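Exercise 7.
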Amino acid sequence: MNYPQNYIKLSAALDEVAAHTSETDVARRLPALREKYRNMGFFLPEASASSQDRVASFNRKLSEHWLKQEAGVLRLDCAILEGKIKTYARDPKTGAQYHVDRRDWKAAAFREESLRGGTIRACAGERIEQYRDWDAVIDEALLERWLTAGKSRRPIADERKFGALLLEAMRASSDQKNRTKREWRMEASGRFGVSVRAFNRIWKSAIEASGSTWDRPGRPPNHRP
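Solution. The predicted structure, written as tokens, is:
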């Protein structure tokens, strides 16, 4: 097996992934992030997108940065478990390297901790225990290729599909919206992976194209929150 000559620890790779994580990437992973935190007994912290005051704007920027980091964890973790990225255990004392099978990662209780810290943590009896306290590393060139490929596959088509659906709904009922703007935004995020910024652009464009009055304040008739 060819081992990487230029490698970086998984913790550094995570920073790279987070830096290359777009708003659309975050939006597509919000349901999984909410489920993850719900299983831990917490709510996913999400800043309000509606308030425009200075403090709310600052909190929103912090929240967006944190969500990118969390979405980056999911992206890198999935890539490892799906075999899209190979990882290696490197002995910090001797420099010896060994490929870590993705099945060993899947069975590891401290997989996320190892990813975030860049050092392999393990429970007794796990196959990955043989590399306890070794560096968890990745081929830097492979990471760059994976990030480049992921960027080229970002779901532009999903924005088009959502835009077509929204425009059709506005044309069918131009004087009365069938759902609140917030409900449409949630569908855009959860079903189509559309970011808040992209949603606002699509919403404005659909109103102009359809001539609808959906931008007027007020709830739809018989609306149940």
